[in-house]
Design brief:
The protein is α/β, with parallel strands linked by helices and 256 residues long. 42% of the residues lie in helices and 16% in strands.
Length: 256
């Protein structure tokens, strides 16, 4: 792989925690707001949610004048076209990434969206060859136990091993309920750090906006593979903070 191209993934073995949503939101934010060169490889077999989202986005863009104008304006302002979204199986993801770099060796980040189970063929091997892993976590007890088990397995069996490429792995709070006291999350964070696991500072609130995709007749969007999130909906989402914190890690190799 190119030294300047980083491979990263939002991964977890618990569904519904947001790994695919974060892949799209961060890929779009970096490409369309921060002018980084991005690619996405969708290995989430069999649904391939991001591939399907790109198809929906493209169809809506071609048939909706408002979205067309937004897209043309984005290109004018950022000089960045849509990032590629490639379909793959987990075992072929690294091959897809190499082929992508052979054809156009200019990508800053390649996001790899993995299946939500370690039992899928090729998942562990591919994860071991990524540079960074980011694991969304919620305070739900079932999700917490499942996610920590997944993170501990990665940390104990893949992190800092000679046959692994992983440079670091970070958990972060998602679906944070504003009605719950922050000291609850602080207490959980302290326990997690005692396990030797790293946590990001950014906490993502629970909000319906994370489910808002491009839709015919609706001008406001949040999650799209072709357009950045509407600036009004970005406020309070903490996505910009998450993107900046991760960018700092990718650039300097450490937390804020």
């Amino acid at each position: 792989m190119s030294k300047k191209t980083l491979l990263l993934s939002f991964c977890t073995q618990k569904g519904g925690v947001g790994k695919t949503a974060f892949t799209v939101l961060l890929a779009s934010f970096y490409q369309y707001r921060m002018n980084k060169k991005i690619a996405v490889i969708d290995c989430d077999y069999p649904q391939h949610s991001i591939v399907q989202m790109r198809k929906r986005d493209t169809e809506l863009l071609l048939n909706n004048e408002h979205y067309k104008q937004c897209y043309y304006q984005m290109i004018k302002e950022s000089s960045m076209d849509a990032y590629p979204v490639l379909e793959s199986t987990p075992e072929n993801a690294l091959k897809k990434a190499r082929e992508l770099l052979e054809n156009e060796n200019e990508y800053d980040i390649i996001f790899i969206d993995m299946p939500g189970t370690l039992n899928t063929k090729g998942v562990i091997t591919t994860i071991s060859q990524l540079d960074y892993l980011f694991i969304p976590l919620s305070a739900d007890r079932v999700v917490l136990e499942s996610t920590l088990g997944f993170a501990k397995m990665i940390h104990e069996n893949l992190f800092k091993k000679t046959n692994s490429r992983i440079m670091n792995m970070f958990l972060f709070w998602n679906m944070v309920d504003g009605r719950e006291k922050s000291d609850l999350y602080d207490a959980y964070t302290t326990v997690i750090k005692k396990l030797g696991l790293s946590m990001l500072q950014t906490r993502i609130p629970d909000s319906k906006r994370f489910r808002k995709e491009m839709s015919d007749g609706k001008k406001m969007i949040f999650r799209s593979t072709l357009l950045p999130a509407d600036r009004a909906w970005m406020r309070g989402s903490e996505i910009d903070k998450l993107a900046n914190e991760i960018s700092n890690i990718l650039e300097y190799g450490k937390e804020n």
